[in-house]
Design a protein that fits this description.
The chain has eight helices and no strands. The chain is mostly helical and about 140 residues long. Among the domains are: about 5-60, no CATH class; about 65-105, no CATH class.
């Protein structure tokens, strides 16, 4: 989806994506009355366009590479299906870039072993901590 053909609708979607209140975005777009603003914001065209604008903005400043790596995977699979020399060269470049980007992702923290998290309590300590009258 690109810009909406109706300039008022496009202006409304742009304003909502910027974070302007729905009623204010509706009047800012040139609509005379605020009473239909909420209904307009619930329409499919408004939701789709606002989501698209937000997604475009996210790509401009996001440091999250997981989504980009996912898209590279999809492009790699599409290139493989073409089964041509040019597609194989593109697939090689795509998978190389995905591997390079994957190295930039934060490493997962190691999960503590079950024994490290267990605390052995005596019966008296357990009653004091969890028994009747404990906080």
């Amino acid at each position: 989806m690109s810009a909406l053909p109706d300039p008022k609708r496009e202006a409304f979607a742009q304003a909502v994506a910027r974070g302007v209140r729905i009623a204010d975005a509706y009047t800012e777009a040139g609509y005379p009355c605020r009473k239909n603003a909420t209904r307009a914001a619930r329409t499919l065209w408004a939701k789709a366009r606002v989501a698209e604008i937000m997604d475009e903005r996210t790509w401009g400043g996001s440091r999250d590479l997981a989504g980009l790596i996912g898209l590279l995977k999809v492009a790699f699979e599409a290139a493989i299906k073409l089964n041509s020399a040019a597609a194989m060269m593109a697939a090689k470049a795509i998978i190389t870039e995905a591997a390079r980007l994957k190295l930039l992702l934060p490493r997962d923290e190691p999960v503590a072993a079950a024994d490290d998290r267990l605390e052995i309590l005596t019966q008296e300590e357990w009653i004091r901590r969890y028994g009747p009258g404990a906080r």
